[in-house]
Amino acid sequence: MELDRIARLAGGGGGKVLLYVLDGLGGLPLEPGGPTELEAARTPNFDELARGGTCGLHDPVAPGITPGSGPGHLALFGYDPLVYETGRGVLEALGIEFPLGPGDIAVRANFCTVDAQGRVTDRRAGRISTEEAAPLAAQLDGIELDGARCSVRHVKEHRFVLVLHPDLASGDGVDDTDPGQTGQPPRAPCARDAGSEATARLLAAWLKAAAERLADHPRANMTLLRGVSSKPDWPLFEEVFGMRAAAAAAYPMYRGVARLVGMDARTAPDGARPLVDALRARLAEHDFFFLHFKPPDKAGEDGDFDRKVAAIEEADAIVPELVDAGPDVILVTGDHSTPATMRAHSWHPVPFLIHGGPARHDAATSFGETACRTGAHGRVRGCELMRLAAASAGRLAKFGA
Ligand code: ZN
After folding, report:
1. What is the reported pLDDT for 361?
2. pLDDT digit string (tens) for 155-181?
């Protein structure tokens, strides 16, 4: 359903919605018939919400498609990730609060090591430390090209953001330069369409200038560029759902994706407890609040089943205080599955629960993949969840007479 049609139904009145995202929530059992991470976790508070609310499973992008966290979150915000696609460069730039203007081109970049023949010997420059990399990134900031000013901001370890401010508008259809393996030279920036050729030329010129400045460094003597993208011109979350929206997340990427749709995103310290404080402090002046909790995904990617269980239990423990803060509708879910057995994101559908508002009773009496399969909502697309939550909060008017 198009966002402008939702916008016509969302009048601006209604209850407050809390979206609580446990990153990488969905999982798999260690052995056939066993519990998933969520099912193994002791989650009395999520279970109570599930009993009093309604459950289901969602496909963040589409069945069989393994989502990145960016598209996974866009879906949860109500944006179909197959329609609203953006690059990692934009997400990374917004996440470190770099103010992207119209026409700016953002790139997710990192230091690498090349040998005397220009072949990549380490794609992450020996996982260079933040302390060592930050001054190098500062050296790359402010390169002036014929046709663009260029900004560089360090992110973490080998990663940084490059932003081109071109004099003339140019497209963002430029391929990554990372060869994806060692023993090969970085690829030249290559335009996928005629409108992006100027951008590819600017990036090639920037790479040359950057390599000159890095020539004396033993490890970080070259850079790789990925996710070339410009800030998209999308309808904002508030325009679509009629809700003033805020967000709290410890990781920059998630603040970035929240800002992309106009949410007032702030930094929260690590852990579940600070999310309670963030919600308490700012729910009064907002209609929608997105809380992001990263640890389940990290544990899943590390292949640590037990740590993922513990992370889910930590997320569960703050639920009574989240409820006390007074949201009318609570939506708990993940942006994708990250089964510990796979050590990676996966395509498996993600459990969700919606608590609050008029609802049909369903059979789900606990929060888990198997229980959610029997839930009232069945299996839906991730981008449909916001509509269900908004409807539960009394925010969507009748469609047609
Ligand atoms: Zn994620």
Report:
1. 83
2. 999 999 999 999 999 999 999 999 989
d(CA 264, CA 284): 14
How far, in Å, is the centroid of ligand 1 from the Cα of 40?
20
Strand order in the sheet with 17-22: 264-267, 245-249, 288-293, 17-22, 329-333, 350-355, 54-59, 379-381
Ligand 1 centroid from CA 369, angstroms: 17
pLDDT at 95 over 80: no
Distances (CA, A) of 22 to 293, 338, 383: 5, 11, 17
Please give the domain boundaries of the chain with CATH numbers for all domains.
Answer: 3-85+234-392 (3.40.720.10), 91-229 (no CATH)
Tell me the C-alpha distance between 193 and 213, whole Å: 30
Distance 194 CA to ligand 1 centre (A): 34
Cα(338) to ligand 1 centroid in Å equals: 8
Ligand 1 centroid from CA 254, angstroms: 9
pLDDT of 85 > 90? The answer is no
**Unique residue bearing structure tokens 């920037």:** 206
Picking from 84-93, 290-299, 309-318, which range would have the lowest pLDDT averaged per residue?
84-93
pLDDT at residue 123 in the model: 93
Q: Report the DSSP pairing between strands 144-145 and 120-122.
A: unpaired
The mean per-residue pLDDT over the stretch 85-96 comes to 85
Please calculate the CA angle 163-165-171 and round it to the nearest 5 degrees.
90
Residues 6+ apart with CB under 8 A from 129: 157
Q: How confident is the model at residue 202 (pLDDT cuts 50, 70, 90)?
A: very high
Going by pLDDT thresholds of 50, 70 and 90, the confidence category of residue 273 is: very high
Q: Tell me the CA end-to-end span of the chain in Å, nearest whole number.
A: 18
For residue 267, the CA-to-ligand 1 centroid distance in Å is 17
Compute the distance between CA of residue 45 and CA of residue 24 in angstroms, rounded to an integer: 19
Residues 274, 3: Cα–Cα separation, whole Å: 32
Neighbouring C-beta atoms of residue 131, cutoff 10 Å: 8
Query: Under 8 Å CB-to-CB from 216, ≥6 apart: which residues?
Result: none
Question: 3-state secondary structure string, 244-308?
Answer: CEEEEECCHHHHHHHHHCCCEEEECCCCCHHHHHHHHHHCCCCCEEEEEECHHHHHHHCCCHHHH
